[in-house]
Design goal:
Rossmann fold, 633 residues, six-stranded mixed β-sheet, 26 helices, elongated, alpha+beta, Arc Repressor Mutant, subunit A, five-stranded antiparallel β-sheet, 16 strands
């Protein structure tokens, strides 16, 4: 076949017409939406029908040498979108054939799209045509009126969805929920993982503020990093309509992000684009991606008629680097040595704040890194409080900033102030799963269990791969449900000492002492206290379960003396379990006097609803504890 010049303007193949001058593709006269790069691929293939066009040729024509792009993925995506527009199948192609590792070939029959000329052998002369028109005019008019009336009724009542189909709406999938999979690091340097993770977090944070769309929390989507699972399976597990996936490539002071939106259940490609910016404007780039995705799901990046936040401003690179490193260690704190990673994260966030004192996210991270350390101090609380207040001052529309301020007020037992900030954090971002969970904690602490449970359920829906329910079930004495949930978590996270310790708590409440001892010993090893596990085992061998319980209670003295852990609520409940009320109240009073050191101790913060303290509630000293904590008696 001879090549067809693009100067011909219009090329026909099958039911399609490609206008090479206007860049439009039509099927039976109806325009087919096709982005620029897929159309360029089509045009190049149509110029040489039947011939192999190599990938290198396509790269030179569409992506010049100075273009910063992942060419292979870009070309694969463009061909995929082109096939979708043509209804073509890569396995059984009608139009575009793939030649592995070489290129592509257009195999459909093509013709010049110039209109056909009228022949002399026409079946009807001009006169006969006019006569025929006159005879049929009457019946045609009646038929036209009938069809028009029918269409009016169909459109008025959208009978059988015909109106949506005719207007092209039936083919537009509805996206009410999204998950962002971890962006792939294409930099070729594993040490740059912190950067791609940071961009993923930022994209989720912005997309989460689409008020009309449920966005799955980062902690659930992170588990699909480098997964081999098909997208429909992931969509089913996360219960979402849409999935966003993409790549990050960093080269010097330039960064490029590619993103694509896919309908999860069907694995149908809906949209894709690529973006490139200077590193100084990396958050502006990320917000542009989020805004485009939001546009695709037909939602507005606003909440209650307020803008999300201030426009991102350029930041200096040392601040950005330190901030992303801080986030990396903050995430590791949930997996590795908690205090060690939190301290590293805090150091990096402080560096970021020092490099750019107006960079609000650095203060959000600084507050988070000083909350929940195992051996906290009054200095930790002050750093957390000041950082949270500074974050709110710099970014008053940031849900994360208000969440950190709420947490600081919660730790200070300012229940009304904490509630106000939690409600504001949720109003600014209804997809903030952690804010919903922590607000549930506050409501539970005040005894408002029904309202608290609603918040936990919302958090679990937004973050389905994490546990937001087991502690709530424990406080409601639904131990069988809590145990079932925790056993599943233990199967997925066998090295998580916190899960095994929580299992032990539930087993103890149910009187399942054999299971309690097994989980208690295992949790001590995993948390980092093998010596306690050994002493616990020896105490059981000597004095049975009663001796093991007493040993566990007395371990509090060792932990405090060695400054390894300060959790007065846990110490108190251990003594309450063995019937030593005096020692239990000693630790509750000690926690009251050092309230800023109880951040990592949920058993203390939920003293009002903790099942272990049932035997203490009739004692007047328990009311003294509630009064000290500013809680209703």
């Amino acid at each position: 076949m001879s090549p067809l010049s693009s100067s011909l303007g219009n090329i026909r193949f099958g039911d399609f017409d490609a206008d090479l001058q206007s860049g439009e593709l039509r099927k039976r006269g109806l325009r087919i939406k096709l982005q620029v790069q897929p159309f360029q691929v089509l045009q190049i293939l149509l110029e040489r029908p039947g011939e192999v066009v190599t990938r290198e040729e396509l790269q030179k024509r569409i992506w010049p040498a100075d273009t910063f792009v992942d060419f292979d993925q870009g070309l694969n995506t463009a061909v995929k979108k082109l096939r979708e527009a043509l209804g073509d199948d890569a396995e059984k192609p009608r139009f575009i054939e793939t030649l592995a590792k070489r290129g592509y070939r257009f195999i459909g029959a093509v013709q010049n799209g110039a209109p056909a000329t009228e022949t002399k052998d026409s079946a009807f002369t001009e006169e006969r045509v006019r006569e025929n028109h006159r005879k049929r005019f009457g019946w045609g008019l009646v038929l036209a009126v009938t069809v028009l009336a029918t269409l009016v009724l169909v459109f008025a009542f959208n009978t059988l969805g015909v109106r949506a189909h005719l207007l092209g709406k039936a083919s537009v999938p509805r996206i009410d929920s999204l998950a962002v999979l971890p962006l792939q690091n294409l930099s070729g340097d594993p040490n740059q993982e912190y950067f791609s993770d940071g961009m993923t977090d930022a994209l989720i944070t912005d997309l989460a503020q689409i008020g009309s769309v449920k966005v799955i929390s980062r902690t659930s989507s992170t588990q699909y990093k480098q997964t081999k699972k098909p997208l429909p399976e992931i969509a089913r597990e996360l219960n979402v309509d849409g999935i966003v996936e993409g790549t990050v490539q960093r080269s010097g002071d330039r960064v490029r992000i590619t993103a694509q939106l896919i309908q999860g259940p069907s694995d149908k490609h809906l949209w894709a684009n690529s973006y490139e910016r200077d590193m100084h404007d990396v958050f502006g780039l990320e917000r542009e991606v989020a805004a485009d995705i939001a546009h695709q799901v037909q939602a507005r990046l606003t909440t209650q008629n307020q803008t999300l936040s201030e426009e991102p401003r350029p930041i200096n690179l040392p601040a950005l680097e330190a901030y992303l490193q801080g986030n990396y260690h903050l995430e590791k704190a949930s997996l590795g040595p908690r205090d060690k990673e939190l301290r590293k994260a805090g150091d990096y966030f402080q560096q970021a704040a020092s490099a750019d004192p107006m960079f609000a996210p650095a203060y959000v991270g600084l507050a988070a890194s000083h909350y929940g350390v195992w051996w906290a101090s009054s200095d930790d609380f002050e750093i957390m409080r000041r950082a949270a207040e500074k974050a709110v001052e710099l970014a008053p529309n940031s849900s994360d900033a208000h969440h950190q301020l709420a947490t600081a007020r919660f730790a200070d037992w300012d229940w009304e102030g904490a509630e106000q900030e939690y409600r504001l954090a949720i109003a600014l971002n209804t997809n903030n799963a952690v804010a919903h969970e922590h607000f549930g904690d506050l409501l539970d602490e005040r005894g408002e269990l029904d309202q608290g449970w609603k918040e936990y359920e919302i958090a679990q829906e937004l973050d389905p791969n994490q546990d937001h329910l087991s502690w709530a079930l424990f406080r409601r004495r639904e131990h069988d449900r809590a145990i079932g949930l925790l056993l599943r978590l233990a199967d997925n996270h066998p090295e998580d000492g916190g899960v095994h310790w929580e299992l032990a708590q539930n087993y103890e409440q149910k009187g399942m002492m054999k299971e309690w001892l097994q989980e208690e010993e295992r949790s001590m090893i995993l948390i980092g206290f093998p010596e306690i596990s050994d002493r616990l085992h020896r105490a059981f061998a000597k004095s049975g379960y009663a001796g093991a319980l007493r040993q566990m209670a007395e371990e509090s003295e060792y932990l405090v003396a060695t400054k390894k852990l300060y959790v007065p609520g846990v110490f108190a409940e251990n003594y309450a379990a063995v019937g030593d009320k005096d020692r239990a109240f000693y630790w509750l009073r000690d926690g009251c006097e050092h309230r800023h050191m109880t951040d990592s101790d949920p058993d203390f913060l939920w003293v009002k609803t903790n099942p272990f303290f049932t035997s203490l509630r009739s004692d007047q000293r328990f009311n003294d504890v509630l009064r000290c904590m500013r809680l209703p008696q």
